[in-house]
């Protein structure tokens, strides 16, 4: 199958490498010419849970070089989704399947405004990976990938993507309620991302002191109230217990938002804690903790050049 993976990060690089190893025709598309040159010139190296191997990948900044594609995985950042859709229009055919493998809320709905919803699939994964270099990935943890469509239908196209991913060592589960699956992941992200980015603590350390533990619990409680009001069925009964279990089982993990802050990159705060604030306002539910976390991360983002480093 001809597959294009859009966006460059640890997970997208792992995914592209595994799809190529499964004998697919894989392209990587990203706007950064230095990254693309390195991936196109050198093999992608993977180590960790998947083993140790190298994979040759085709990479470009120009969608026209790729041509029409059967499947597109959008792994770009949530704030880039609309511009990504504009950029990839030359590789999308009538029956091209678009898979959103992104953080936060709102991506699937936005993609459905541009693409026939029957050809759009939402995905979340519990695979975890880290970039050691632009073309070097450590696969930290294996996990399940959940697929679903906003219309709750299970069409042949979603089974095809499930088979594609499973053959690429991304075992899948098909859900008729992808929205609930996304909210279940969102609440964990709400708890760990912003708080980790602000305090610069690893996940396990967030539970070691009462102030951070209490703030984590407040952020989760606010998000859970919104999910309950929206009649969203979460994948777990106790959200706080679930988040604290994640912290304890992976104590040395660094949240993606903390990695963004350490690299002085724009974060996805508007689509994680910021999404909770927006939903809270629309439902008249107060979200002071998530509002504060959102504002603090934005303050850090706006002052990267002024941060004190000693």
What does this structure look like?
This protein is an alpha/beta fold. It has two domains: about 1-175, Rossmann fold, CATH 3.40.50; about 180-305, N-(1-d-carboxylethyl)-l-norvaline Dehydrogenase, domain 2. It has twelve helices and twelve strands. The chain has helices at about 10-20, 35-40, 65, 80-85, 105-115, 155-165, 180-200, 210-230, 240-250, 255-260, 275-285, 290-300; strands at about 1-5, 25-30, 45-50, 55, 60, 70-75, 90-100, 120-125, 130-135, 135-140, 145-150, 170-175. The strands form two sheets. Strands 5-2-1-6-7-8-11-12 form an eight-stranded mixed beta sheet, sandwiched between helices. Strands 4-3-10-9 form a four-stranded mixed beta sheet, with helices on one face. It is globular.
Give the biggest sheet: 8 strands, mixed
Shape: globular
Q: Any low-confidence stretches, pLDDT <50, length ≥5?
A: none
Beta-strand percentage range: 15-25%
**Overall pLDDT, averaged?**
95
Number of helices: 12
């Amino acid at each position: 199958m001809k597959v294009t993976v859009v966006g460059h990060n640890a997970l997208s690089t792992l995914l592209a490498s595994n799809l190529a190893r499964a004998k697919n025709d894989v392209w990587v598309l990203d706007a950064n010419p230095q990254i693309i040159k390195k991936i196109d010139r050198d093999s992608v190296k993977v180590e960790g849970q998947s083993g140790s191997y190298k994979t040759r990948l085709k990479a470009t900044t120009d969608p026209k070089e790729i041509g029409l594609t059967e499947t597109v995985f959008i792994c770009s950042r949530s704030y880039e989704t609309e511009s990504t859709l504009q950029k990839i229009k030359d590789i999308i055919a009538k029956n091209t399947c678009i898979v959103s493998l992104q953080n936060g809320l709102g991506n699937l709905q936005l993609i459905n405004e541009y693409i026939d919803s029957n050809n759009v699939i939402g995905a979340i994964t519990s695979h975890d990976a880290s970039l050691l270099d632009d073309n070097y990935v450590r696969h930290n943890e294996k996990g399940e990938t959940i697929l679903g469509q906003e219309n709750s239908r299970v069409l042949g196209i979603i089974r095809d993507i499930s088979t594609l991913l499973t053959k690429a060592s991304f075992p899948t589960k098909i859900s008729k309620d992808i929205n609930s699956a996304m909210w279940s992941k969102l609440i964990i992200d709400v708890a760990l991302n912003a708080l980790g980015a602000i305090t610069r603590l690893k996940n396990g350390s967030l539970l070691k002191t009462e102030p951070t533990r209490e703030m984590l619990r407040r952020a989760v409680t606010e998000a859970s109230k919104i999910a309950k009001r929206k009649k969203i069925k979460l994948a777990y009964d106790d959200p706080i217990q679930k988040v604290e279990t994640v912290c304890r089982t992976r104590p040395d993990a660094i949240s993606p938002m903390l990695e963004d802050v350490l690299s002085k990159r724009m974060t996805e705060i508007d689509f994680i804690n910021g999404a909770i604030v927006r939903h809270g306002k629309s439902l008249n539910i107060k979200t002071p903790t998530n509002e504060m976390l959102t504002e603090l991360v934005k303050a850090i983002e706006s002052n990267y050049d002024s941060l004190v480093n000693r």
